[in-house]
C-alpha cells in the first residue's frame, strides 16, 4: 500500500501529526510525506526515525519527499525516557529572562539560575519556546552552562516555529529543533515539568 501526504505550506506540528495518522492507518506499506521547508523535514524525519521506521529523503525544487516504510521488519519501537534516581525532570523555558520586570535583571537571574542548576542532578530535558529559544543561540549568556548540561546527558529542544519567528534558526548553537507535538508529548509524559 502507498499513501502520499501533502504537507506543503503547513506549519508545525501539522506535518508530523498528518504523517503519524497516515502511518497508523496502514498495517504495512509506504507513506510519502511531502513538505516544503527544512523545519518540517527535520521534525517529520526525527519522528519516524524515533518510531523505528525506515526513512529516505529526496529533494526536488525545494520540496522534500520523505519516504517511510512500515512493516517488512520495521516494527516501531517504544522510546523509553531515561529516569534519574530522583525522577526525571523537564524544564520548560518560555523566555530568555528569569521573571518579569527589568530585562537586564532577568538576564542576570537566568545566568544565576543555570549556574545553580549545574549543582543539581542534570534534568532529562530542557524545552525552549517563544523567546526562550534565545538561550540556545551563539550569543547566549548561558551557552556554556547549557553545553555542560548536555555533557551530563540533558537533551535540549528548541521550538522550530519560534526559531523561525525570531529568525534565529541559523544561530542555534546547541540542541535540536523540535515541534509542538513533541513538546506536548514531553510535557504530558511521566516526567516532572517545571516552567520558568
From TrEMBL:
Limits of the UPF0033 domain: 5-29
The lineage's top-level taxon is: Bacteria
Question: Which InterPro entries did the record assign?
Answer: DsrEFH-like, Se_metab_YedF, TusA-like, TusA-like_sf
Q: What PROSITE patterns does its record include? A: UPF0033
Which family is this protein grouped under? Answer: Belongs to the sulfur carrier protein TusA family.
Q: State what protein this is by name.
A: Transcriptional regulator
Lineage, uppermost ranks? Bacteria, Bacillati, Bacillota, Clostridia, Eubacteriales
Amino acid at each position: 500500500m502507498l499513501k502520499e501526504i501533502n504537507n506543503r505550506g503547513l506549519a508545525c506540528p501539522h506535518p508530523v501529526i498528518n504523517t503519524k495518522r497516515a502511518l497508523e492507518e496502514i498495517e504495512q506499506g509506504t507513506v510519502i510525506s511531502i513538505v516544503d521547508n527544512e523545519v518540517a523535514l527535520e521534525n517529520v524525519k526525527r519522528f519516524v526515525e524515533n518510531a523505528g521506521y525506515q526513512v529516505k529523503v529526496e529533494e526536488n525544487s525545494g520540496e522534500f519527499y520523505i519516504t517511510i516504510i512500515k512493516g517488512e521488519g520495521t516494527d516501531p519501537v517504544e522510546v523509553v525516557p531515561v529516569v534519574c534516581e530522583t525522577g526525571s525532570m523537564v524544564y520548560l523555558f518560555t523566555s530568555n529572562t528569569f521573571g518579569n520586570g527589568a530585562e537586564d535583571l532577568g538576564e542576570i537571574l537566568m545566568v544565576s539560575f543555570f549556574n545553580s542548576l549545574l549543582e543539581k542532578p542534570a534534568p532529562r530535558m530542557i524545552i525552549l519556546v517563544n523567546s526562550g529559544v534565545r538561550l540556545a543561540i551563539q550569543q547566549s549568556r548561558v551557552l556554556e552552562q547549557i553545553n555542560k548540561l548536555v555533557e551530563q546527558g540533558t537533551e535540549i529542544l528548541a521550538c522550530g516555529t519560534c526559531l523561525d519567528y525570531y529568525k534565529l534558526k541559523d544561530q542555534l548553537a546547541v540542541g535540536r529543533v523540535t515541534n509542538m507535538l513533541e513538546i506536548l508529548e514531553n510535557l504530558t509524559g511521566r516526567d516532572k515539568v517545571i516552567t520558568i
